[in-house]
Specification:
By secondary structure, the chain is mainly α. It has helices at residues 17-38, 43-53, 59-74, 89-111, 122-132, 139-171, 175-200, 209-236, 240-267, 270-273, 279-283, 288-296, 299-308, 316-328, 331-352, 357-371; strands at residues 115-116, 119-120.
Length: 375
Amino acid sequence: MLAPTSIRSTPAPIGDVHRVDEALTRTVDAQARILVDVSPDLEPVAQAVRQRAGGGKRLRAAFCLWAADAVAGSAGATAGAGETVTPGVVEAGAALEMFHLGALVHDDVMDRSDSRRGIPTVHRAFADGHRSARSTGDPELYGHSVAILTGDLCLTWADDLLARAADAATAAGTPERAAAARAVWELMRTQTMAGQFLDLHPLGRPRTLDDVARVVRFKSAKYTVEHPLLLGTALAGGSGAMTDFCSAFGLRVGEAFQLRDDVLGVFGDSRETGKPTLDDVREGKRTVLVAQAAETASAAQLAVLHRHLGDDALDEAGLEQVRQVLVESGALDRVERRITTLVEDSLALLAAAPIPVRSREALVDLTEASVWRAA
């Protein structure tokens, strides 16, 4: 069983992730030239994407690459360790990372987050720039509007990258793999947006654990792990059994990933997470952690949660009170135990999967990087 003692900030580079970075750089540079050709005024937008596309853990791309490697390796079509032989899988990995970037830019607007990965969010950077330049109009509206457009650009470029992945599969004589990859992509896009809506939607009543679990599954777990695995499997021509494994394994690791994210959102070190720990509580996020606390909290503890969740004026003292409730109600312990159970189940599935040893070891490493992390 993996243990929290293996927490680390970022995973080591695995397999062909460097090729994904190269594909992202090429895409952003090419699109930036188009933007600047329209007007030099668009250079800050291009620079905002370029700066943010260079960060992140690349977990989604890595899951995609190693799923393809597992299928290809099982069929005996292997190159050197970690070298992909699946046409289009690098472009698919880049598409996943670009989609994630677009989703983050939009998510930061909805969450009213001021920083991400240690730098100002897109809407905050443009609002502050508007204010500093003493431009006409509302700085906040300007920042939000530019961020929406920037996120839209990223999502569009992600579709372009996926199209290239499908074209590569078709050119290699496997159009059925291209069609399967497109089907995974289309499902991922719609389900992710649906999960985002559910995260915003008040439902007209207090959220239950089932409500929150549905948000976790569709907003995060599926597109963080399951869909990247399925995309790599589709491009490599994986069997129905491999597809079933990817879904079962991916949903468990994806849920554990999001639960860790929720814990770090309240208990993490902002110097490592790159995001203020006040944000989730200020926003009033109804996470599994909060839902667990609400189920067992005393009247006094519930009063603390009601007072501080969603409070724009929340300070460190208020955050510490919320943390105390999450600990003393047993919510933090229950979430940590759930994470451990999900990891154990994931590793059991992985141990039984008929895939090459190197692919299995890489997926173990990715599971660890996803769950026992400090950022």
